[in-house]
Amino acid sequence: MSMELLAGIILIGGFFLLMMFKVPVTFAMLISTFGSMLCVHTYLPSVAPTTMIRMMIDGVSNFTMLAIPFFIVMGEIMAAGQISDKIVDLANLAVGRFRGGLAYVNCLDSMFFGGISGSAVADVSSLGSVVIPMMEKQGYNREFTVGLTVTTACQGVLIPPSHNMVIYALAAGGGVSIGQLFYAGFVPGIGLGCGFILVCILLGKKYNFPKGEKMFKDAPVRWMGKNPETGKFTFGPCMKVVGSAILPMFTLVIILVGTGAGVFTATESSAVACFYTFILTYFVFRTDKIRNFGKVIRNSLKTLSVVLTLIASAKAFAYMMTMLKIPAAITNGLIGITDNPVALLLIINVILLILGCFMDMAPLIMIMTPILLPIVTSLGMSTVHFGIVLIFNLAIGLCTPPVGSALFVGCAVGKTSIEAAAKKMLPLFAVMVIGLLLVTYIPYFLKPGLFGY
Questions:
Q1: Are 31 and 14 in contact (CB under 8 A)?
Q2: What does the radius of gyration of the chain's CA atoms come to, in whole angstroms?
Q3: Is residue 231 classed exposed, middle or buried when 0-12, 13-18 and 19+ CB atoms within 10 A define those classes?
Q4: What is the domain range of residue 255?
Q5: Closest Cα partner for 410 from 142, 160, 92?
Q6: What is the number of other CB atoms lying within 10 angstroms of the CB of residue 229?
Q7: Looking at the 3D structure of the chain, how many domains does it have?
Q8: Do 285 and 291 touch, CB atoms closer than 8 A?
Q9: CB atoms < 10 A from the CB of 106, how many?
């Protein structure tokens, strides 16, 4: 057995073996990488194990990485400042009065909040704690409510800003514009949200969802600007709801317009947006006290430590794969199966969907990008287009068992089992898969530059 083959078995086989024993993915990557590195060092003493440490440091020593902690802190500030309540109010004002109105609110507020936080887990934990009890109180099935909340939250990783797009840009070698990724995620993210709303309309007729008026009978005026006594809308409360939500939504303008117009880099825009949400929470709305800011920083550091450790470990893991020529072998193997672009892209999607069921998004982006990017670029797909397809795939993985982090959080908030929620999510899964196929193939066949790809 050759050295490369043995080291490759230790790297890949060891990783999946450790995962089967429920070793955390970060430690699974570190242990398998170190074992593979020792194997290579035995045959080639010039390859020192300390190279692994250097790769890990290089993985998190990129200036672009600064955007990630700013986005994380921004999300924590919004959670502390109850910004989600204002987003729910705005969505309720727009669509809450129709039959099945709360289901539409669930879709729309995730679209709004995802465009601010860029985190599916933050969406589920923040908005879910508000919307899930409301929907259940109005007579919606609990499992469907949880399933809808979880799947709509996953569109948040597509609608900018998304720190996962920053991670992809780093994994792709830094040659991908984060600003272009942000713009390219708009159409798939909003289109996915519209698909969820369409499913809710169809299911609303089938299961006779409650009309929105039931919610307003005893609700305070602040929700819809609707007087509970007369049943009529009043102009003042409506404008108050819109005004309260516009200021948080302006965060999205800072990020997109700032990066798109070249005023800010992605890192600078994230810093400005973070400072803006700080001012909103602690000085404009005053929904949290400044003395609690230490807790926000502690929560942010916990999340950041997990993300950065994953990125550092995945960088070393990817380095070993490159050294052992594993990406080239997989590329040749896939092309050996078929050279048909349509079939190859379908195979890649299936692989990513399966992997997304067992691994979190950040390590998969770091591991799979250097493997699959050479394949798709050889087919003529742009790096931006593939980035959106990759993130769309892994967004589906966030809400699929057994390792869907958004699904876990949603079931915990909604107090239901994963199995029961997953059954009710099947029509919503179908929407996500159809959306994935459209995003994969339509820009590929049409003229370059479509939707920013």
A1: yes
A2: 23
A3: exposed
A4: 3-452
A5: 142
A6: 7
A7: 1
A8: no
A9: 31
C-alpha 344/C-alpha 375 separation (Å) is: 9
The residue among 91, 135, 168 whose CA lies nearest residue 410 is 135
Q: Which of 55-59, 383-387, 403-407 has the lowest mean pLDDT?
A: 403-407
Query: DSSP secondary structure string, 343-374?
Result: HHHHHHHHHHHHHHTTS-HHHHHHHHHHHHHH
d(CA 391, CA 436): 10
Q: What is the mean pLDDT of residues 312-334?
A: 78
Residues 333-377: pLDDT tens digits?
A: 777 787 788 888 999 998 888 888 767 787 788 888 888 888 888
Number of residues assigned to the chain: 453
Contact call for residues 319 and 6 (beta carbons, < 8 A): no
Identify the top-confidence range among 112-116, 151-155, 159-163, 432-436. 432-436
Q: Which SS3 state, helix, strand or coil, does residue 233 take?
A: strand
Residue type at position 2: S
Q: Say how many CA atoms lie within 13 Å of 191 toward its Cβ.
A: 16
Q: Give 290's DSSP letter.
A: G
- CB burial string 34-63: b at 16+ within 10 A, e below: bbbbebbbeeeeebeeebbeebbeebbebe
Secondary structure letter of residue 174 according to DSSP: S
What does residue 258 show for φ and ψ, rounded to 5 degrees? -60, -45
Average pLDDT on 24-38 reads 87
pLDDT value, residue 227 = 55
What is the band of 126 on the pLDDT scale with cuts at 50, 70, 90?
low
CA atoms within 13 A on the CB side of 30: 13
| Max CA pair span of the chain | 83
Confidence of residue 430 (pLDDT cuts 50, 70, 90): very high
Question: Could you give the 3-state DSSP secondary structure of residue 226?
Answer: strand
Which residue in the block uniquely carries the two structure tokens 């959080």? Answer: 409
